[in-house]
Specification:
Elements (H helix, E strand, L loop, with lengths): L1 E3 H5 L10 H9 L4 E7 L6 E13 L5 E8 L7 E6 L9 E5 L4 E2 L3 E2 L3 E3 L2 E3 L2 E2 L2 H4 L24 H4 L5 E6 L10 H12 L11 H4 L8 E4 L10 E10 L9 H9 L7 H13 L4 E4 L7 E5 L5 E3 L5 E3 L5 E5 L2 E5 L3 E2 L12 E8 L1 H10 L5 H6 L8 H16 L2 E3 L4 E3 L8 E3 L3 H6 L5 H10 L3 E5 L2 E5 L10 H12 L19 H15 L3 E2 L5 E2 L1 H7 L22 E2 L4 H13 L5 E10 L21 H9 L4 E10 L1 E3 L8 E2 L2 H15 L4 E4 L5 E11 L2 E9 L1 H6 L6 E7 H8 L14 E10 L4 H12 L3 E10 L8 E10 L8 H19 L2 E2 L2
Parallel strand pairs: 13-16, 28-31
Antiparallel strand pairs: 1-12, 2-12, 3-4, 3-6, 4-5, 6-11, 7-8, 9-10, 14-22, 14-23, 14-24, 15-22, 16-19, 17-18, 19-20, 20-21, 25-27, 26-27, 29-30, 31-32, 32-38, 33-34, 35-36, 36-37, 37-38, 39-41, 39-42, 40-41
Helix pairs in contact: 7-8, 8-11, 13-14, 15-19, 22-23
């Protein structure tokens, strides 16, 4: 919400010397967030000039310029020669002249300069150059603004260009602050400055007759039990002149508030909306057919809105209609058939109160946010509609030359009232943690407009009509804390109850991420969207087509599927970094992948209404519509793991480094991960491993195929690993028990076993471990030999075995016996024989 300070000062006593920063600080103290400060960014001298004469001079480029003699006042040098390319002014016109030394928004400094054969001693400005609008086809003639001031008058002050606006962020529950009225009240709360409510008018000024212009609500089946319209104020102003100029001060205020000038009639409705927070709509009365009826749309009904688009309406949409049909989307945007134009002579003014939820849903349904819907969906003061309608009428009489038709009023369909809330005496202090006195609590609530009545030690608090957010004792307590000052709330760390904290799965995921980061990997979260082709390539071992979840409304039409693997995202991140000169990369990501079951249709065509709690059956249906989601962890390495240094050669990342990352994950998760040779569609044959824990496959590791890395624009070797982290952690159990250390010496022996080349070293190792028994402390593969002395189709695997007993020193015979038991198990399981 942008708040021009000159406008704010009309309704609250802001000190003359207060800076925009002072005003923002006061508003921040009562719970608003400051955004920015806006001004016209002008620097004088910028003055009123009178065009005395000009000579039209055609140029060789086809353009005609005017060499003008302009009187800028004796104090500013009298008559000056100025070159101007516009042709919409005449001798005797008063214009805005920016003299040498002035600075326009941009910044655009003005200086005397030679152009078109003359020295132009200044510039005649357009509305856009001054920041007053978008008009740039001609210069700004002051007569068009109804201004006649002597030459030499300061134009900055004359046009209100010395004003400044502060911008605050208004949260959705405080819609009353989307108005000068609301912000002025809040400034008064913060500083104690006197507040003058522009919403207070004498009853006879805003009273409406029981008869007059026909207004009705036809909402026989209200949505969520709420009628679409509760108030509908109507005023008629006749014989207006829509060509009259909008006052310069009004244009300046609207511009600072972020609204461009569109003509006197529309400017007045926007002005009152910003001032009072009540959206206003004006109709060309002569284009209306009969009275107005507020009703819901019928299926298939259409409406052309003011933006020129024909919209197909929904049966929940609330409409403004006359005998011809829909003439506006209530609270969102008017229709084109009754639009006010330069031909309008009689205006019907509408100021209504509409259902907040209905307006919000309509604006989102039609993707049509507006200043009006922004206020209605947050809640508009239901007591201000008749005041706002009369305020618009008065301004149209004053500035558009109209006459107020006193025979026409409006309709009040629902009594304006608010429900009292019971506030226990001790509740506020207990909730906030500050010992407020009863006087402070009641004083704060009365300051914001509540009526407070004591009863039995408690208070019955009736909120004001402009605060629909005050619905319970908690919101009332928050208001006391806000008005009395947040600085009074102590900073005390709460004592957490025992037994709380991260779950075992959360702790495990955190350990894995911390371990990878400590090992030198950089975490790079990525979007969960990819293509169907990438899912097929990386989401399955074979590369065949598997079902993927397609988004109904994707952010990127080329990546419309939810990922089955984290690797495509890491490849994109690697490409992005390489394109920016980062060639040595060690990346990891933990995130969710989506693995739908074949033949199951995910997603739902039925979305439950927002205002109704879904039933248990509906929640179960929604749960079934969600595909299985697994949290994976993946790593990617490319480039050099060790950079080239004096005396040290570069060490490119390879499959061994990816296996080291897998071991890091295993250590952090508390599991032992086995590696066996395998195949993946996107990985190099012979350089791909399948990862398993206790026989359960949990992921893969390998080198990316050159064709795949080339398609991702990744030169050189790329190695990756991906594991189902949820599965890994579930296989780890709840705790890891550390083995006790033996003080007795170890006995070491080696064994070389010959097996078929198709037998994995991991299966031989497992057999040795199973057969050797508890005395075997560790086993490590130290050699894989294929060649002379070993039969073709076979390989020799040498393992280093270490034996130790916890209670004695082992003899060589005991160690040999355990080793041979392991060899026997290996022979039985995989056909291993001892190498001669």
């Amino acid at each position: 919400m942008r708040v021009p300070l000159s406008w704010l000062r009309e309704y609250v006593d802001v000190p003359a010397g207060a800076t925009p920063e002072d005003v923002l600080a006061a508003l921040v103290s009562v719970g608003f967030e400051e955004e920015d400060v806006f001004g016209f960014d002008l620097q004088g001298p910028i003055v009123v000039g009178e065009v005395l004469s000009f000579e039209a001079e055609p140029q060789s480029n086809g353009k005609t310029i005017r060499w003008c003699q302009v009187d800028v006042g004796e104090a500013n040098g009298g008559v000056r020669g100025i070159v101007c390319g516009a042709g919409n002014f005449f001798p005797g016109d008063k214009v805005v002249v920016t003299l040498p030394g002035a600075v326009l928004p941009g910044p655009f400094p003005i200086a005397a300069r030679k152009t078109y054969g003359h020295v132009s001693d200044g510039m005649i400005a357009s509305a856009r150059e001054l920041g007053l609008g978008d008009e740039h086809n001609g210069i700004l003639r002051l007569i068009e603004l109804g201004i006649d001031a002597p030459a030499g008058t300061d134009a900055i002050a004359l046009l209100g260009l010395d004003d400044v606006a502060v911008d605050i962020n208004v949260t959705p529950d405080r819609g009353y602050a989307l108005s000068i009225r609301g912000v002025a009240r809040e400034y008064s709360h913060a500083t104690g400055a006197a507040f003058r409510d522009p919403g207070l008018r004498d009853a006879d000024e805003i009273a409406h007759p029981t008869s007059g212009f026909s207004v009705a609500v036809d909402d026989a089946a209200p949505i969520r039990g709420r009628v679409g319209a509760s108030e509908f104020a109507v005023r008629i102003v006749r014989d207006v002149d829509p060509t009259k100029p909008t006052p310069a001060w009004m244009i300046a205020r609207l511009t600072l508030a972020g609204i461009r000038s569109l003509g006197i009639l529309i400017d007045i409705t926007n002005y009152v909306m910003i001032e009072l927070g009540q959206p206003i709509h004006g109709y060309d009365l002569d284009l209306l057919r009969g009275g107005i009826t507020v009703r819901r749309a019928t299926a298939g009904e259409k409406l052309e809105t003011l933006d020129g688009k024909v919209r197909t309406l929904h049966t929940e949409d609330l409409l403004i209609t006359d005998e011809s049909g829909p003439i506006g989307l209530a609270g969102v945007m008017g229709g084109g058939t009754t639009e006010m134009t330069d031909a309008t002579r009689n205006v019907l003014i509408e100021a209504a109160t509409f259902d907040t939820v209905s307006i919000a849903r309509t604006a989102r349904r039609h993707k049509l946010p507006s200043e009006a819907s922004r206020r209605f969906e947050r809640g508009v003061d239901p007591a201000i509609a008749f005041v706002a309608a009369r305020r618009v009428a008065d301004l149209m009489v004053e500035f558009a030359g109209g006459t107020l038709d006193t025979e026409v009023g409006g309709a009040l369909f629902t009594p304006v009232s608010t429900v009292a809330v019971t506030l226990p005496a001790a509740f506020t202090s207990n909730l906030i943690g500050v010992d407020y006195t009863p006087e402070e609590i009641t004083g704060a609530l009365e300051k914001i407009g509540c009526r407070v009545e004591a009863e039995g030690g408690d208070w019955h608090v009736t909120p004001p009509t402009w605060r629909p957010d005050l619905t319970d004792k908690w919101t009332l307590a928050e208001e006391v804390a806000r008005i009395e000052g947040y600085h009074r709330i102590p900073s005390v760390l709460p004592t957490p109850p025992s037994g709380r904290g991260l779950t075992a799965a959360q702790q495990g995921r955190r350990r894995v991420s911390n371990a990878l980061a400590a090992a030198g990997f950089v975490e790079t979260p990525s979007f969960a969207f990819t293509t169907d082709e990438q899912n097929d390539l990386h989401g399955s071992a074979s590369g065949g087509h598997l079902p993927s979840v397609k988004l109904a409304n994707p952010l990127d039409g080329q990546a419309a599927f939810l990922r089955r693997s984290l690797v495509p995202g890491l490849l994109q991140v690697a490409h992005r970094n390489l394109s920016r000169g980062f060639t040595d990369l060690a990346l990891f990501e933990t995130g969710v992948v989506f693995l739908p079951k074949p033949g199951v249709q995910y997603g739902t065509s039925h979305v439950p209404p927002l205002a109704v709690r879904p039933s248990a059956a509906m929640l179960a249906e929604l749960d079934e519509s969600i595909p299985p989601q697994h949290r994976h962890v993946a790593v990617l390495l490319t480039g050099n793991l060790v950079a080239k240094q004096p005396g040290v050669a570069a060490a490119p990342a390879d499959l061994v480094d990816a296996l080291d990352a897998v071991r890091t994950i295993a250590s952090a998760a508390g599991v032992r991960i086995d590696v066996a040779q395998g195949e993946r569609a996107a990985l190099h044959p012979g350089r791909t491993g399948v990862l398993s824990v206790d026989g359960t496959e949990v992921g893969y590791v390998g080198e990316v195929l050159p064709a795949v890395s080339d398609a991702a624009d990744l030169p050189g070797r790329v190695v990756v690993a991906e594991l189902d982290l949820d599965l890994v952690l579930s296989l780890a159990g709840e705790k890891v028990v550390a083995a006790s250390l033996s003080g007795y010496p170890a006995a070491t022996q080696d064994v070389s076993l010959v097996v078929d080349t198709g037998v994995s070293a991991a299966s031989v190792r497992d057999a040795l471990v199973a057969g050797a028994g508890e005395l075997l402390e560790s086993v490590r593969l130290v050699d894989d030999y294929r060649g002379q002395g070993v039969a073709e189709g076979s390989k020799s695997l040498t393992f280093a075995l270490r034996f130790r007993a916890p209670d004695r020193t082992l003899t060589a015979a005991e160690a040999t016996e355990a080793k041979l038991a392991g060899v026997a198990a290996a022979h039985e399981r995989v056909g291993a024989t001892i190498r001669d």
